[in-house]
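[retry 2/3] NmrA family NAD(P)-binding protein: previous attempt timed out, resubmitting with same input.
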Amino acid sequence: MTEHTPQRCAVVGATGFQGGAVARLLIERGHRVRTLTRRIPADRPQLAGLSYVSGDLGDRDEVRRLLEGATHASVVMPLSYDPVLIESYARNIGEAARESGVLRIVYNANTRVPAHPTGVAAFETRRLAESVLRESGVDLVVLRPPVYLDNLFSPWNGPALIEDGLLAYPLPTATETAWISHRDLAEATAAALFTEADEVVGRTFDIGGERSLTGEGLAAEFALGLGRSVRYEALPADLFEKGLAQVIGAAAAAGVAGIYHYMATGDDPHLMAGDGGEAARTLGITPRAADAWVATQPWQMWATPESA
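[retry 2/3] NmrA family NAD(P)-binding protein: success.
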């Protein structure tokens, strides 16, 4: 079996950004894809070729309907950091996958996870989900990305980059980070879903970009991609959290920001760094360099009428 043979794939989280990227890639490659959703977000167009099962991850029967007949499953958890909820979601997915005969689950933790317990909900709920999914007995491959380049193509970053050459993000300037795009995450997921190589089965991969970049290194990549000077500024994590709360709510924002509060302590400075390309080589993918990703984004959409 290869990724070139059409499969029936359940993609948990396909109405979000990371899961959506996975669903698009799988559909492009001819696979049948469906997802579970309470509602299709009004600000995102319905994805052609994606079928929907109405329901919630907390409902065991609805999760079974999603996974019934599926050969493979890609999973990313919603922006919840309640351990009781996340455990129930993971248990429902794992049990339904086992009962439905799913061959493999690829779980995107959506963050790196420290080797030791931290008390940080963003890490510990994702560690918990991984543990519960492994208990299902279904073959599980785990992807732990660092930070997404796509986070930087936003109303918070775009105007400042175009107008002032300012790139602000809540990571300390000296933190080495293997930035990765949503598309490269999707490529890694597809590879992890279908390859039968022993080097992949049951593994956990700290996937990432071509190389680790400090804040200054990231600014240099943006300068190459944009063709202008760019400087990096470490955004305080509490300020980031406050702004994010206006978009996704205080509870979810606190969960996401927990990652950046943790990184600001300096206790685990290499958590987001690359692995020398080992994961990419094993999965057979080639993530794009940051400057190449930057060069393909429509940054001018953030320009003011005066500067456009």
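[retry 2/3] NmrA family NAD(P)-binding protein: Residues 15 and 45 are 9 Å apart (CA to CA).
[retry 2/3] clearing retry counter.
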